[in-house]
Automatic annotation (TrEMBL):
One of the Pfam families matching this protein, by short name: N_methyl
Organism for this UniProt entry: Lacipirellula limnantheis
Superkingdom to which the source organism belongs: Bacteria
InterPro entries documented for this protein: DUF1559, N_methyl_site, Pilin-like, Pre_pil_HX9DG_C
NCBIfam families with a match to the protein in the record: IV_pilin_GFxxxE, pre_pil_HX9DG
Annotated protein name in UniProt: DUF1559 domain-containing protein
Amino acid sequence: MAADRIPQRRAFTLVELLVVIAIIGVLVALLLPAVQAAREAARRSQCLNNFKQVGLAFLNYESGKTQLPFPTYSQDPLTPQIVLGVNNWAPHVLPYLEQGNLIAGYDVKVDWWKEPNRTIVQNPVSVLTCPSTPNPNRIQDKPETTPPNKTGACGDFVVPTGVHTDINNALAAADQFPAGADLQGVVAVKSEFNTANELKNVTDGTSNTIMIGECAGREDVWRGREFFPVDYTGSPRVRARGGAWATTDNPYDIGQRKAWHASFDPIPGNVAINNSNEWGHCFYSFHNGGSNFAFADGSVRFLAEDLNLRTLAELVTRANSEVPAAP
């Protein structure tokens, strides 16, 4: 009687293995964009939540002080008895963002880049940073003719002080703002014409007026999605000024084309969301298709980068007798 044959186990052939690997590769290629999109959606949602917290902090500041902060502070010749250093809005608002411990030793009588403030402002503040920014742990280290350098951790949020008249250069004739138009923003600079930033001044409606926007990635320069790393010592130097969360270069009037150096003028493209993060230009984020904003009523919204420029400008001005419906 012949011995029972032991069935032999058939292994995968090389061709079969290659086919399986190819199928897996195709599935991964199909899945990866979906995973990346899900991650970006989560980051955008976290950024929007940060905007919500910062917007509420501004409003809580207003509830306690009966007015919003000014975008920048410096010694006022009209009130020399009040000693102030060169600072921006952040040290005044951070206590309302549960950052009281960080800011406890901050002295508003001292410039932001000098001690004791110098050590404090080198701490990153996550709530002022967009999770989609490629390098969230940036440090501004701008050299000064008189040391020390202006050094501080960077943030991605900007307070638009209003709309610059240069925006007319980017608008069609029918959309241009007339001479004398009130182009101040919710958080406008202090002047003889603006002695307090009160919500009652937002006559265009708090739900239709931007209070905080994104200008992410500074001090590196971004034009579209083209990256130019910051260079303080090169000729010409490269800098999207206003990176540090404490710097007075943080806020600006939108609508300008102030390139980092005259040889790089003008800023290419249209004045629009996500065109450039250079100081004074517009708003800029690393979100696909638009940017996040906090409005003066505490609401937060994502605005598309193809939003009409005149409409965007109307959303920034607080009292120019326009009531655009915020998209």
